[in-house]
Amino acid sequence: MAIQYETLALTYAPELYYVDSGNPLHDVGPEDGGGLYWRVVESSVSWADVCIQYIAYFTRQRWVPTILDTFSGKLPGEHPNDYVPLFIYFKNGKPVRVVFDICHYEAIGAINAPSPLLPQDRRSKFLIKYFYRGLVPLKEDKEVISLHENVYRLIPERLDGWWRGVLSGDIVDEKAKLIIKQKLLDPFKVITTFRDHAGKLGFLFHLIFQSAKDYQIRGLSVDVDKIALQVGQTSDAKGFSHQDIEKLTEFVGKNIFEKSQIPEYLALRGYKKFQRV
């Protein structure tokens, strides 16, 4: 059975790409790559036989100032180790679902088969975006560069080391920890955040995504300025400054939405209509 899973994991290991922007603080390149690791979790549900969890490991994370720092409590800079999760679920040896990180473990993508973005006979392709290393499914691989990541089985000892923030030997760094745990142990629940507990950033993402979805359902074009105003007027947004809401909505419009629309693969945390403004 282990050999069968290894064959499946290697056959469908996602291909990762990046774009060279010429700015080292915005680029994702092979110089920081540490490999693509996989592990297996056998199914507890009827719609899948197994989940193969892939984690793209990077030896260093660097980032430039953005509104995201307001919610993470971290100053722009760098720290060792970074991890990008992507889970593929299989039924009868074929992929039926993929769940992946879009931004900071708080914005999640999910694609169900049948879909051209989740091919049944070859590896799926994803673009790793910018310094925050979010994943976006690739429809074509023109003008992008392959990371050519080596693929390794994620043994329990290495995973435990990631959770503890081990760099080498007895050297431990809190900033190097893999903070994803519950979703790795039980990937068969609905995933709308990879974190064990959603944070303020995820909650505000949730409000912004819901508001944008409401616009689309009403047949209106998504207007970032109007969404920021609408979110700010909800009782759920108390405790967030209008400036933070504006800046984060602008970030979402530029980096997560596609042509001012919610991507079909964006996983929403349950849809509830906002009152019109």
Folded structure, characterized:
It is a single chain. This protein has seven helices and twelve strands. It has 277 residues and is an alpha+beta fold. The radius of gyration is 19 Å and the shape is globular. Strand 4 (77-91) and strand 5 form a beta hairpin. A six-stranded mixed beta sheet has the order 6-5-4-3-2-10. It folds into two domains: 2-185, no CATH class; 200-255. Helix 5 crosses helix 6 (224-232) and helix 6 (224-232) packs antiparallel against helix 7 (242-255). Helix content is 25%, strand content 28%.
Summarize the structure.
The chain is an alpha+beta fold and 277 residues long. The protein is 25% helix and 28% strand.
Name the descriptors.
single chain, 277 residues, alpha+beta, 2 domains, 6-stranded mixed β-sheet, 4-stranded mixed β-sheet, 25% helix, disordered C terminus
The total count of strands amounts to 12
Low-confidence segments? 271-277
Count the helices. How many? Answer: 7
Residue share in β-strands? 25-35%
| Tally of discrete structural domains | 2
Physical arrangement of strands within the biggest beta sheet: 6-5-4-3-2-10
Distance between the termini: 56 Å
Task: Give Rg in angstroms.
Answer: 19 Å
The biggest beta sheet reads: 6 strands, mixed
Element-level helix/strand string:
HEEEHEEEEEEEHEEHHHH
Q: What is the averaged pLDDT score?
A: 87
Structural class: alpha+beta
Q: Determine the fraction of residues in helical runs and give it as a percent range.
A: 10-25%
Judging from the principal axes of the Cα atoms, what is the shape?
globular
